[in-house]
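Sequence in, structure out. Go.
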Amino acid sequence: MKEHHIKEYDDTLPPLLPDAFREILERVAGALEELLDGETDVARRQELALTLEDARSLSRYFPIPDGSSPGKFLQRVTFLVEQNIGNAAYSVDDLAPAIGLSRSSLYRHLYLTTGLTPSLFIRQARLQRAARLLRETSSRISEVAEQVGFNGLKYFNRHFKEVFGVTPSVYRKKGGRTGEER
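Output:
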């Protein structure tokens, strides 16, 4: 029979596990309990029982520390990105140590919290600020792109259109409304 066990993670890992992940674990545990109740084969019951035990124990390997939450984590990340939004060189390599995580831990925590990779999160923040500047200022589009950390206008235009569905100039002409808004 296979030996089931979950490798414990280093206690120094800054833990963050969103409630959604805990809910998924609870659902998996529930499904495993149902399978276990209906199983008659002894070896299979033992295997399911070990798997159920592993599923239930996962959350203790990634507890949310006292006073910490996905919301506070996201606020801190957002604050740091906003503070460096005009720095075109600001990247995940700068954000991870500033937040106190390795690149891979930052990736995991941010992806679980937002569904975005750290690079996409930074780009989204830049584009959101650019949209606000286009609505609220009369700065040239190239100046706005530079103010939010984009080095090239072509790159800025392409990503702006991906997110908002229109080019920056059309966005400004429509008063900040995208093609989908009426």
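Check: The radius of gyration is 23 Å. The mean pLDDT is 78.
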